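Structural prep section.
Before we set up the soaks we want a predicted structure of the protein with zinc ion in place, mainly to decide which crystallisation condition to try first. Input record follows.
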Amino acid sequence: VRPEPVGPDHLVLERVPGQDQAVAFLRQAAGRPHHAYLLAGPEGCGKQLAARAFAAALLCDGGGCGECRDCRLALAERHPNMFVVEPEGRDIHVDTIRSEVWHPAYRTAPEPGRKVFVIREADRLNPAAADTLLKVLEEPPADAVIVLLSARPDELPETVVSRCHVVTFQPLAEDFVASTLVGEGTDPPAAALAARLSGGNLGRARRLAAPGGLSFRDVGVDALGRATADPAGALDAAELVLAAAESYRKGLRDDLEAELAPFLDERGRPEEAYRGAIRRLEERHKRRVKRAERDFVDWVLLSISAVLRDRVVVAVGGGDHLVINLDMGAASRPDAVGSARATGAIEEARAALAEDLNLNPRLVLERAFLQLADLAA
Ligand SMILES: [Zn+2]
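Run finished without errors. Recording the tokens verbatim:
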């Protein structure tokens, strides 16, 4: 029997794959933390995982053993001393920073020990929210560590960035993402496809490789087929996408029950110590549900856009290494110009929905699919 590994290799921060430099920096920092960090790097490169592991390292007496209560709660973002902020709608509002960062920063921690604040997509802080955060960064409470995450750090106010230690995360290579998935038990062709579709985003690749993970692409392919059949099919296609988006939203309800279960007593009531964590989980969930249908519609449109892009690649004689949807055969009569125009229509619809949250998705989808029908005719 080999002895248990001793040394830093077992620490939770070591579980962040493919980011050796950032991890080494954070492991050092956890010993004597500065008051603020900015984790900067593209979507899906491990910033969130690293932020959770860093929080665990800051809250655990063993520097992030990964096993104790503090670690388990921090890794699940449920530690009472851990405050997680993310955009509501498009922005992070000043009220959120006031109630979730400013107030708790200057109060006694819910449990003995440090307080850790994690601000996701920090580039979405609106100016008032950034100002309030800046006040905390200028007079940091001794027992608080603030961790900002951003894929667009250049969009953060310089005043905020200059008060943070910047930790840079590298984009993950496609091969690395694929081999990570294979290491986690995904079969190689599915891992290669998920890695390609994810664009180097490991979290997204995992979701894509999971059972049902490609359902939005199935919806996209189905909608594209209908829309290009005839104009009546375009309206069917919009209906199909919206119905799938609604059922996706309904499915999220079960997720919340599973997330809350560990905090409830035998009678299904919240345990006192976890009230804060439960309230935050419920609020985050409410926001997720609120944008679930829009998110799903965007994934479907993105998958249609990728299929159309592949048709352009094939039509102009591009090789397999340039195709995104590795598992799908080429279209029978690839038409570069038509497919490129269709991609434009789909991308326009995505931009419109992202830009204006009050737009009716049905109208946007119908217009885009009618354009596709026209182009196919
Ligand atoms: Zn621990």
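Observations: The first strand starts at residue 36 and ends at 40.
Flagged for discussion at group meeting.
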